[in-house]
Design a protein that fits this description.
With 89 residues, the chain is an all-alpha fold. The chain contains three helices and no strands. The radius of gyration is 17 Å and the shape is rod-shaped.
Length: 89
């Protein structure tokens, strides 16, 4: 493979990681999957240039932000649930 083809494959793999980070941010418990893949994607896409690389960076950033928001939301819900005095059966 030529260096240019490998770079293009890397850019597209970063794009896929960005999409997966968004999906996992919404589906995993606490958004941890989105946080992890968002960080990995942002680190990998840092060197790349071009339109697809810019879109991949944006997708990874969205996945990271969604993952953090879901994590914060799950912590708040857990604290609220623990503070309610619910009778046990």
């Amino acid at each position: 493979m030529a260096k240019e083809e490998m770079n293009e494959a890397r850019v597209y793999s970063n794009y896929v990681i960005g999409i997966l980070s968004i999906v996992l941010a919404l589906l995993t418990s606490g958004g941890i999957g989105g946080i992890v893949l968002g960080i990995i994607g942002l680190v990998r896409v840092k060197k790349d240039k071009g339109e697809i690389a810019r879109k991949a960076r944006n997708l990874n950033l969205i996945g990271l932000i969604l993952g953090c928001a879901m994590f914060i939301l799950s912590v708040i819900i857990s604290i609220m649930g623990a503070s309610w005095n619910l009778p046990t059966a």
